[in-house]
């Protein structure tokens, strides 16, 4: 398909569901750059890290609403020439366990989008799907679009099942007559883009969770063996594929009859299958985080994943609470990184003209630069093991020095006396330790005022709690800044 880069974009009106998210905002910016008359982001949030930049363009509009509300969707899609349906729920972490919300957004929300397209005479709908519509834990090597959908009752999480259901709704709606009287005889054209795992500067689903676990020292092992390979796709490459898919739905191209992309699914990736842990190693190295060396089999990983699934299912009422951390891993995530599955984008290349613009090396370099800057602006610190060592140690020392005999206190005191010979000495050691921590905290605060003023209070409290375990990270930052 050979079209100009702005074909079907210039002077057109677009709606992007999930338009304030990572991929959605990148798509909105590119549509605006290519001359779209109006781009509307329909999102449940009103503010995200990218929203301020988008609002600088007068052709950009934002409508806050819920995909689960038919009225919200109907209002947002009025007047559009083309819709990109990106919004979804339950891709990873705690969200995966919220079955009702997953179906409400991914299935009901897609039905609302389809109805609004038909009611308002919208000719083009590009649906962002997932590899999981055909993948469910069984090895796939260089798969293509002829693969059947994974059995609905075989999915280990509601997200993959709901996306498969929604994708089939979208593709089967291709060619349906528009209900709008002004578009009599015309129909809706639809297609689905199935992206690999997405990465890039600002990605908010996979990488922040992985980096947080690495920072806390909670990435102790790899899942699966080193030969396992999966696909990744850089955000700019995915945006390009989405734009090409929208062009593939145009029915007014001279010399072309039926739109080439109508009713079609497309796998999209960088075209470089790689082990996920090998792929992330340069990023972890650049941030001085430990790369997991030990390996855990998929069988054992599933045992751990099912344990966290059961544990978090018990805590279902609190899944939306910020105080509840993300689970270490869930069964679907074990399959994502522990079993080989990668796909060819040959169909997208031949029918849409898709060729990745950004190489994996360039994409990872940009991602590394982003995360290094993000780390420089945030409070750094030791792993959770240092926290446990210091906090538990100080509590035990306090118990041995000051608490009366009850429960395990006599045992703790006896252990302390092996080193310090008397209770008064234990008390002196505890007071000196507290004084040292407070002194280090004050020093850290004064040093941070010079080298990291935005986090000076954080450095004070963290160093007061941890002492030199925290201070050494600030000293390292000070040294690197001076150089």
TrEMBL record:
Residues 15-295 form the 3-beta hydroxysteroid dehydrogenase/isomerase domain. GO terms for biological process: steroid biosynthetic process. The chain crosses the membrane at residues 12-32, 384-403, 415-438, 458-475. InterPro entries: 3Beta_OHSteriod_DH/Estase, Lipid_A_modif_metabolic_enz, NAD(P)-bd_dom_sf, TMEM254. Keywords: Membrane, Oxidoreductase, Transmembrane, Transmembrane helix. Coiled coil: none annotated. Belongs to the 3-beta-HSD family. This is OLC1v1016155C2. It comes from Oldenlandia corymbosa var. corymbosa.
